[in-house]
């Protein structure tokens, strides 16, 4: 046997003793630090792992199990850091840590956890792998899930704070294929029932929908307010194949109530969700059209978020154990000026019209929009605000103001009203080929003489036309907080264009809102841009004072329209005296169709009514105004 020299043996013994001493003194802190860095970074290959029973686990397997526990949080950023001193007891150690998640929507979730370590059966410290390390309540097979917590949607409210939209009971009517015995007969019976409540439901595709659906499917047909459903309940409930679902939805007072202005609140579509940038999810409600859509983010609020453990219960259902909740932020109300009583009267006034029609009512004293009605489809385009149509003879109110304000004429100045009047080869004529002869200007206005206005056009001139229209807000820059068309006035660039423009033809276009606002200006003696949204309020537009003498004369002339002119059907309307101006607007060359107009005011309410293809102003618009004012009074 070869002997080791005594000196060398002593040196080796010293080195060995030193190595053993270093291993025993090495604490678990370095292992914890390396593990936390690897956990946060998603790389655990530098760490050794064992199970609680002491069996070794490969680092990639630990990472796979951890990521499985993450569930819906898999793509979210996780940061893990030490939260205090490591406690060592023999071969075991524990390290307090803080786990922090960056959740969707900028939400942060952090909580304490514990990392256990052991050096039993090994040369150094190893991390004990267990699901509870990821989150103390997790067990094998669990997954973290995200649950949205819907915020409370705020209401659109009136000036007093009363909700114009509120929860109402509805009934969803549908059919289930497995219950249907005679589909053609079912279609006939349903169509007859829906006609009774004037609800249009497309049943033409029902056969295809039934064929393509599961036998037990709920095929939705229509959602009715409870009061409407109750009217046809005896007819639809017994039908073989029908199924019903009761719900509560946020609705306006009636189906018609300013629907195109307010919009609706419905479940978010796939397109809504895709365009929301993560703000909407399946099952969320969102605004469609009108104010509900424009102010959806304000009204909807911000969704909350819950993190849960989803476990399968004994009965097979999934049970959630809530771990964390970021509370939702409720929506904020949008306050507007609509008045329920006036809006209902406006909706009722248009209910009898079969042609597309619009009515806008404005409070004279402060410019508040009290009603915005559209028919016959109240949920269509908000023509009351955004329509771009010729105003016809209602524009004579503005031209007359311009002539009076420029002292080009007085109400008593004689102005000839012949049957026809020719300007540069273009012949202008009156409705029904009427001729008044040489009469005072106020009679020309009351009887709506086109030829008199065409003859007076040079006295107003293009500049006077623009000035008068601008003074009464036509074409102005004012903001209601929702889309609105303020109008466009003809430039009166040629003699014929100017002659047409002074009585609302040519290239002049307005909305009913613009004409109602102009009428309110005449009634007040000051043009004030109309207001609709009070909170959050858009920028205000300064008021503009009108010529007091011209306005006084014009008001008298507008009263004469009702007492002895084209609006005489309104003489017997209850309430205060009505002032106004009729209008018949040609909108297509060579067509006999015309839009029917009336603008006016009674007391503190100014209004404009337009019925598309309604004929003369006296034929459709005036009767609609009569219904409106009669209901109001």
TrEMBL record:
Domain Penicillin-binding protein dimerisation: 149-308
UniProt-listed InterPro entries: Beta-lactam/transpept, Beta-lactam/transpept-like, MecA_N, PBP_dimer, PBP_dimer_sf, PCN-bd_Tpept
Pfam families hit by this protein: MecA_N, PBP_dimer, Transpeptidase
Domain Penicillin-binding protein transpeptidase: from-to ranges: 359-628
Signal peptide: 1-22
Positions of the NTF2-like N-terminal transpeptidase domain: 28-141
Location(s), subcellular: Membrane
Keywords noted in UniProt: Membrane, Signal
Keyword Membrane found: yes
Family: Belongs to the transpeptidase family.
Protein name: Penicillin-binding protein
């Amino acid at each position: 046997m070869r002997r080791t020299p005594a000196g060398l043996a002593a040196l080796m013994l010293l080195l060995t003793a030193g190595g053993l001493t270093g291993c025993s003194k090495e604490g678990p802190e370095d292992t914890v630090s390396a593990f936390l860095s690897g956990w946060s970074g998603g790389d655990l290959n530098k760490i050794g792992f064992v199970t609680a029973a002491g069996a070794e686990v490969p680092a990639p397997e630990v990472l796979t199990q951890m990521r499985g526990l993450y569930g819906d949080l898999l793509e979210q950023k996780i940061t893990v850091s030490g939260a205090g001193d490591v406690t060592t007891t023999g071969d075991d150690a524990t390290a307090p840590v803080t786990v922090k998640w960056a959740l969707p929507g900028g939400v942060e979730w952090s909580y304490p956890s514990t990392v256990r370590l052991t050096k039993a059966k090994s040369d150094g410290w190893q991390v004990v792998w267990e699901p509870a390390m990821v989150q103390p309540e997790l067990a094998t097979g669990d997954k973290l899930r995200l649950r949205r917590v819907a915020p409370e949607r705020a209401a659109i409210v009136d000036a007093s704070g009363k909700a114009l939209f509120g929860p109402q009971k509805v009934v969803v009517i549908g059919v289930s294929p497995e219950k249907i015995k005679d589909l053609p007969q079912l279609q006939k019976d349903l169509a007859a029932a829906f006609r009774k409540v004037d609800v249009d439901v497309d049943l033409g595709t029902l056969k295809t929908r039934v064929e393509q659906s599961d036998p037990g499917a709920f095929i939705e047909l229509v959602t009715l307010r409870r009061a409407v459903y109750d009217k046809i309940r005896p007819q639809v409930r017994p039908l073989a194949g029908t199924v019903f679902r009761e719900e509560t939805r946020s609705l306006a007072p009636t189906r018609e109530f300013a629907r195109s202005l307010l919009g609706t609140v419905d479940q978010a579509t796939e397109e809504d969700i895709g365009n929301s940038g993560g703000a909407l999810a399946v099952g969320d409600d969102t605004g469609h059209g009108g104010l509900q859509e424009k102010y959806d983010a304000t009204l909807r609020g911000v969704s909350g978020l819950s993190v849960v453990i989803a476990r399968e219960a004994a009965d097979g259902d999934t049970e959630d154990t809530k771990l964390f909740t970021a509370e939702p932020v409720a929506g904020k109300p949008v306050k507007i000026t609509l008045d329920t009583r006036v809006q209902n009267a406006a909706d009722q006034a248009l209910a009898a019209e079969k042609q597309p029609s619009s009515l806008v009512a404005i409070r004279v004293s402060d410019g508040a929009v009290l009603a915005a009605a559209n028919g016959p489809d109240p949920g269509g385009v908000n023509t009351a605000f955004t329509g771009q149509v010729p105003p016809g003879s209602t524009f004579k109110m503005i031209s007359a103001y311009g002539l009076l304000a420029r002292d080009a004429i007085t109400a008593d100045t004689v102005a000839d009203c012949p049957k026809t009047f020719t300007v540069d080869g273009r012949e202008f004529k009156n409705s029904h080929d009427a001729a008044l002869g040489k009469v005072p200007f106020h009679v020309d206005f009351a009887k709506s003489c086109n030829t008199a206005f065409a003859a007076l056009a040079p006295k107003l001139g293009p500049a006077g036309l623009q000035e008068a229209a601008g003074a009464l807000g036509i074409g102005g820059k004012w903001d209601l907080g929702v889309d609105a068309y303020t109008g466009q006035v003809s430039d009166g660039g040629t003699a014929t264009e100017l002659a047409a423009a002074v009585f609302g033809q040519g290239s002049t276009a307005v909305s009913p809102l613009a004409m109602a606002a102009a009428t309110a200006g005449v009634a007040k003696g000051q043009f004030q841009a109309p207001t609709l949204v009070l909170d959050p309020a858009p920028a205000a537009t300064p008021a503009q004072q009108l010529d007091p003498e011209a306005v006084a004369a014009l008001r008298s002339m507008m009263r004469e329209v009702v007492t002895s002119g084209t609006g005489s059907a309104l003489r017997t309307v209850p309430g205060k005296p009505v002032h106004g101006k009729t209008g018949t607007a040609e909108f297509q060359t060579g067509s006999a169709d015309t839009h029917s107009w009336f603008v006016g005011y009674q007391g503190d309410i100014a209004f404009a009514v337009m019925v598309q293809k309604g004929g003369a102003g006296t034929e459709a618009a005036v009767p609609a105004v009569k219904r409106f004012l009669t209901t109001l009074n």
